[in-house]
Amino acid sequence: MGANYLGGSAGLEYNHSSYNQLTSGWTNSFKRSEWGLFVGYNFPAVARVWLSYFFSNSMEATSNSGLITSGNKYQGHTTEIGVGHPIYPYMDVNFSYRLISLDKYITRTTTTTLSGTSTIGAHEMVAGVSFPFEPY
Asked: Against a cut of 0.85, is the pTM above it?
């Protein structure tokens, strides 16, 4: 949800996803939700660029098959930079690069702040399709 003015845009963003992580023979299943803010600029009929900062990133384990108990969570933040290209008036192809930092581990009874080498970091490259409400 956001607003556009003279090619610029800003707003609130929410992402929800689920995935499996393979680690040393174990499979961990997670669901992730993120809340953040974005700013961007639309170059007419050429591309859209944006920068997002997700101030709330929560990854909750959904299975007990791995090294983490179901219901336990990692929390942190994510930074994303992206570019989108229109392929139809109301359809864009998007590519983004994401830096994820998780610095809290939460169980049913404790919250642990992770620091130094305990902090979990990840890089993601994401390709997707979007349907903007407002064409270029």
From this structure: no
